[in-house]
Amino acid sequence: xxxxxxxxxxxxxxxxxxxxxxxxxxxxxxxxxxxxxxxxxxxxxxxxxxxxxxxxxxxxxxxxxxxxxxxxxxxxxxxxxxxxxxxxxxxxxxxxxxxxxxxxxxxxxxxxxxxxxxxxxxxxxxxxxxxxxxxxxxxxxxxxxxxxxxxxxxxxxxxxxxxxxxxxxxxxxxxxxxxxxxxxxxxxxxxxxxxxxxxxxxx
Length: 203
Hints:
The chain has helices at residues 2-11, 26-39, 51-67, 79-87, 100-108, 120-128, 139-142, 144-150, 170-176, 190-201; strands at 17-20, 43-47, 70-74, 92-94, 113-114, 116-117, 133-136, 158-162, 180-183. By secondary structure, it is an alpha/beta fold. It has one domain (2-198): Alpha-Beta Barrel (TIM Barrel). Helix 2 (26-39) packs parallel to helix 3 (51-67). The relative contact order is 0.15.
């Protein structure tokens, strides 16, 4: 488990931003991933809720390998999807909630897993499973104060703020205690890319 935690430590060491590329064609997904990589955002997630999304993940995984990067699969809600993610070239998995069976299936294939949490109970269960990184979802509904509150009982836990995040509110959540923000459509907006880059260039 510590190796899995260390993987996320290293993956997010260069930039406190993860890009989520949902619902695009394979070609467009690769284009946006390339924009993210060029901007210094090296952690890319492609949710796999449909066969078309799996094809997009495969395309990005191939492009990532060519550049020495890695890509993860999102919305992985079953052990079967863990296998699909692995077969498509993903190197980590992300889920909207914490399911021990999904987490174990991912780790059995040596893929670090980032589970979703929204309550203290969720965080405590993930911590009990040995996880140091979790995805706080939906972050914009939870609010930035949620992150400040969770730092008290869970000082060692590291949170990826996901859901409703963009370049304009990212700094607020990072200052409140989130370690990483996950953004969706920002890579289609040149202005947001510049703002996101400024977040980690100045750190």
